[in-house]
Amino acid sequence: DKGGHRHFMAKEIAEQPARLTDLLGAYMGKDGVELPAPGIDFAAIERLTMVACGTAFYACLTAKYWFEQIAGLPVEVDVASEFRYREPPIGAGTAALFVSQSGETADTLAALRYCRGKADRILSVVNVAESSIARESDLALPIHAGPEIGVASTKAFSCQLTVLLLLALDAARARGRLDDAAFAARLDELRTLPGLMNQALGIDDAAHAISARLAEARDILFLGRGRMYPLAHEGALKLKEISYIHAEAYASGELKHGPIALIDKSVPVIVMAPRDELFDKSVSNMQEVMARGGKVVLITDAAGADEAGDGVWQVLRLPACPPALAPILYAVPAQLLAYHTALAKGTDVDQPRNLAKSVTVE
Ligand code: M6R
């Protein structure tokens, strides 16, 4: 049932505010984050190793910023197909965390089995509660996204991110990085997320309006800095999967180390830059692109648009939001740009060529 939408993907993008409301209701108790038993003692671990594939991997990369900056917990992130064959040493004091929508991805499951007996705790963040990955974990954390049918992951990504942010906050409190008042303030911020996501969905028309031009491009670049950098990868993956346009993501600061050679007037460059502590740096990278004729799509908030929107090809405006929430909120324009560009190209949005929803072979 597509709920009146043309595609499952459109339905799944649109239902994110509701699914996030469910998720927050399930995890937020009166006194803070309530994890399913047996929970995890973040004060007792020294390091977190996170492993996943595809979109779930980009959720892990985003979470590294949260765990390190907010909780002071060192994090390693790897794609499962590399991790499992590298024989990484997993010492005492390490918790291993696996993220998977389906809970059946072969490489992720094999990586989990590799960590069994080596890591102190095996955690997973899954959508399918009865999946192999959930069953083989010491603690499986559901993302409450409901069934995701579109091959391109959308609501599972925002729900994975939200569970991981809740975990990072829980870790920060356990490790003495957030006192009770600061922790409560962070939870209050999170409670605004469904409403913010709802507002972000309002850029649907703007995304549609530029999609015909994006659909003409052969290559599209995505740039982000700091906690927005992994989302640049997710935006590029989404676009590749369903529109078949070649898309790449770079950390904004890496541009001048090579990729800037790709820029000319035929290359749209999507810059994800809320008005945060790194905004000025992102803007100067964006101006380097514009100076070489690149067609910039700046995704930012009103303050960012006022400050840096002049001369930019297209500005997409999102509501202002607490910095920690930006990677979740800015997932919406990434999804909508991919969706509308694929529609403009006439590709099969829900069943893109060569792809399966669940990758159970390596
Ligand atoms: O079920 P999983 O989360 O383990 O799947 C991982 C990837 O196969 C998946 O995220 C894939 O990259 C999606 N098609 C992305 O849209």
TrEMBL record:
GO CC, any one term: cytosol
Signal peptide positions (record): none
Keywords per UniProt: Aminotransferase, Cytoplasm, Glutamine amidotransferase, Repeat, Transferase
GO MF annotations, alphabetized: carbohydrate derivative binding; glutamine-fructose-6-phosphate transaminase (isomerizing) activity
The enzyme's E.C. designation: 2.6.1.16
Top-level taxon of the source organism: Bacteria
Residue positions of the active site: K357
Catalytic activity as recorded in UniProt: D-fructose 6-phosphate + L-glutamine = D-glucosamine 6-phosphate + L-glutamate
Domain SIS, first and last residues per copy: 38-177, 210-352
Key word Transport present: no
GO biological process: amino sugar biosynthetic process; carbohydrate metabolic process; fructose 6-phosphate metabolic process; protein N-linked glycosylation; UDP-N-acetylglucosamine metabolic process
Cellular compartment(s): Cytoplasm
Subunit description: Homodimer.
Functional summary from the UniProt entry: Catalyzes the first step in hexosamine metabolism, converting fructose-6P into glucosamine-6P using glutamine as a nitrogen source.
Protein name: Glutamine--fructose-6-phosphate aminotransferase [isomerizing]
Native species: Wenxinia saemankumensis
